[in-house]
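Structure, all three chains, one model.
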Amino acid sequence: MTTLAANLRDRTAIAAWTREHGVYLALLVLVVFNAIATPNFLTVDTVQLLFSQVPPVIIVSLGMALVIGTGGVDLSVGSIMAIASAVLAKFVTGGSPIGVAMLAAVAAGLLVGVFNGLVVAIARVQPIVATLGVLVAGRGIALVITGGALVELFVPVFKDIRLGKFLGIPYVMIVAALLAVAVSFLVRRTAFGYRLLAVGGNRRASVLAGLPVRRTLVVVYAISGTLAAVAGVIATARLRASDPSYIGLLMELTAITAVVVGGTSLTGGRVRILGTVTGAILIQLLETTLVSHNAPDSVARMVEALIIIAAVYIQRPARSSR
Amino acid sequence: MTTPVLAVTSASKRFAGVRALEDVSIELHAGSVHALVGENGAGKSTLIKLITGVYQLDSGSVRLRGEEVAFDSPRSAQRAGIATIYQEVHLAPQLSVARNFFLGREPTRFGSLDLKRMNRNSAEALRRYGIVADVKRPLGELGLGIQQMVAIARAVETDASVVIMDEPTSSLEPREVDLLLDLVAQLKAKDVAIVYVSHKLDEVFRACDTITVLRDGKLVSTGPTSELTRRQLISRMLGRDAAELDESGRTRLGRRELEDGEPVLRAEHLNRRLILEDVSVVVRPGEVVGLAGLLGSGRSETAKAIFGALPLDSGDISVDGKPLTHQTPASRIRQGVAMLPEDRKAEGLIPDMSIRDNIGLAALPQLTRSGLVSRKRVDDIVKTFMTRLRIKAASPLQRVSELSGGNQQKVLLARLLCLNPRVLLLDEPTRGIDVGAKAEVQALVAELAEKGMAVVLISSELEEVVEGSDSVVVLRDGAQLGRLVGDDITEDKIMDLIADAASEQIEASEQIEAEK
Amino acid sequence: MTAPAPATKQPPVAVAADHGGREAARARARALTSLISRNGAVAVLVLVVLLGALLVPSFGKPDNLRNVALAASFIGIIAAGMTFVIICGGIDLSVGSTYALATIISAMYAPRGSFIAVGYALLAAGLVGLIQGLIIARLRLPAFIVTLAGLTGVRGLVYYITNEGNDHPQIEGFRAFETLGTGSLATIGTPVWIMLVVFAIGWWVLNRTPFGQSVQAVGGNQGAAELMGLPVKRTQTIVYVVSGLCAGLSGILTTALSGGGQEARIGDAYELSAIAAVVIGGTLLSGGVGSMVGTLAGVLLLFVIQNLIVQGANLNSYVQQVVSGGFLLVVVILQAVLSRRAGTADT
């Protein structure tokens, strides 16, 4: 009887631990597996390749995590990346300096994000539909901006973005890491972070506690849009071209997956930044692993689907006690 | 004595190692009403959910007409003739009354719903219980009271031999309560065994034959109502010396002399189309003004309007002589007004957040310097108020959703008090909390008023308004019926005011009585 | 001592009678809004079609209208299934992939006869729905995530069975099957008729069967439905099977119409169009409230507007996307504003 009880306690403890830290464990398992089974995995090249591929996903996922923390979701991030890319191309081909072009691209993302936020906060449309509208319309807008064609861009700075390193770490990874730290600080230490979680936890109660709910929501979607635009600029630099029908395609799904695998619940009220970053790396590493083991793309997708289900299954809330 | 319809023997249940129910036995008899009372967390809901198959027993047994049963879901319990009516109205608001009435056991013809029969039968059944309603209308378009009555009629019509009512009157008006107790009597006459869970002791004494008291998951006593006094019952529920409670089970709040002073709160001529009509509330320092009236009378709406949560078409509100402008809760809080909302869960708590974060939420602007929250200042405030309000918790970091109702309410009060408000609007401060916490909250309100705060108190329990207020504004249908002061504040006077205004409805009811 | 029953101030009174004019006015406002949100899409559809016929001559031609209806029928059938899922409080992101799976399977098995082709395709699509439904209902995982995994995983499966998208199975000379897609009745294409039949059955099931009642009750309040003893898990599971089958049927019709040879990426983003149609039709994503007629009108609206852009303004497909997305936004913003007007005080 005692052992049974102890056993039970142990099991709930293990379950709780896995719920909280499952994503780190999964990443560790995958790294160990690769270290053993994948030739040349533990080389600098592999890590650098991963580090150059994963930043856009991390950056978009950070914004997505904040949105999901408010109980919403932002389906428009992929289209915002495309818009940012198109704006970038428009300014570069129009002869603007690259700095101005990048700023304009990011500003475009900010603008779309603010629009999302207004629709969600003021008009009070459900986030999923509001951002679905922008997902559909946004890519159209991006295509209209570039006239539908792929625009090749020859900008020296892009090479730096693509290949530049500091202490062996790609610039883009450093940017992603800094953004992650900043967002984490925002959530944990600022009044804005408190408000964000309160709004996600109980919007009505937040209104009655005197919190500026609408402003908080608009800012959250604006951050998500801005971060997506930054990711759009990086993706454009890597592609050396603006291709609005391709850039950011399905990014909303990848980002949501990263956030959810990282342990942030879709119901809102909680945000896990380190988990989100780990989730993004996990997904990217999974693809890399499958590719290096010659698994076809189709299999990679099916495995990814299983991982998503497994992640939410492990993290599902324990049965309520009363 | 006859064999019980349903007998629970030595039921025990633990959740994650915590005892919820231990060795509890009760017997339900046909044609008898069995009250289940106890503070929050005493194990009432757990016991009900064990009977109805929501939870499974760890040990013990449930026997229905002598045969041992173990239901795996509410559905199978329902099939066996155990109907349950839960605290909140649990039906589908978008479907018609008739469709709700037959939900889960719809009559069909050739696979298609027999709408004619559903409409006819449901209208007949409702009429039998004294409810007249257009059964084709969506349920959600009707008042809360009638929704609850439909839920009860629905459960009863399933030919249940056991009917369990979990706080069925928590959202009902006094006269709806009467109607419900009538219904209970009818069921009793039909030899149904009834379990009646309620916080309202008057109802328990009025309607129940047997009273079982639970405390901390254990059975304290079970026996005939006639052998128990109100005072004994309360002391058994609380498990402490009953000396601090007077004979009637109420806390003693002496009425004080008020100094004449300039009113802190002046809210005058509040108007909002269809909701409020020229309502005025004036509160002097140290005064508690009660808002009395039935559900939907505009009492909560008045508080919300003062708090800026209900936009007004017109009205003048000022605090300490300064007129309030922006109609948002945020600006009202800055201007010294704080409100405890009616629905703790839906409007108050952030369930995933800790006690600490819940308390500090509204005071964030004061605890923040250039956007950063000062952890130390939050901790100080939280510590102060947790001690002062005697909030019982493992630590300030415990999730607020894990607390009992009474402690949750105290957390919300702490959230308001750390704002140091001039005006405190309390909407149902003691609803659904146990007797001990209730007394503490009532004493706190009196204490705050004594310190010069202006308090507006709303409660659906008239005695709470009568005991706790220095003056009472009586409302009905969004309009002000009168204002009572001093010795005029009695339950009778308030009810008279409301009843006079409702004379036309009494006529309507007499018609129905005649039809019966 | 027993406390005496307090003197009753009023005799019991019928509860329905006590909420005077105020409550009635509020109820009327609510009823009006629900009328608008339920039938708004139909009204707008009629308006747009009439205006379109007046202003754009080529739009009103019977041939063009027939084509619009035919084009709409594929998303339409998917949206019919989606309506059930959304009313039940869920969402199904996997329908585009399931549609592709059925398209490919029905083409692959066409050489073995129409029955086998249709049967296998429906079986596969139904299974996809069943698995997702079971995971959502039994394991209580969020539908959004489960069907997101479905979207990814089933698409992977489609690529797997088509040799990474390199195979494009064709149907050769199987008339019976092809008639499903290419046939017509009273000059209107079979898929359109099938869509109408699907919607008719859908309406009946939703409004006239116990299962339909369950769907609405579960979507309105799952916990309540559980406590009332409704078969919540079964209902939740079945709606995903229905959605899968609808997506499968749509895929089969696509193969029948085109004779196969589809790309593995077919049906990409169909889930978005289907959800958009359902939402435009007045079904709330929060569950509990919705209508089949509205969804039908929603689908037709989406396609009529796209057609008008092509016929009238001769604009390219990018602008179509912008207009479709913009239209969806306008509709949902209007819905939100209207429903708030009628609802109780907003805080």
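Chain C touches chain A through 48 residues (CB under 8 Å).
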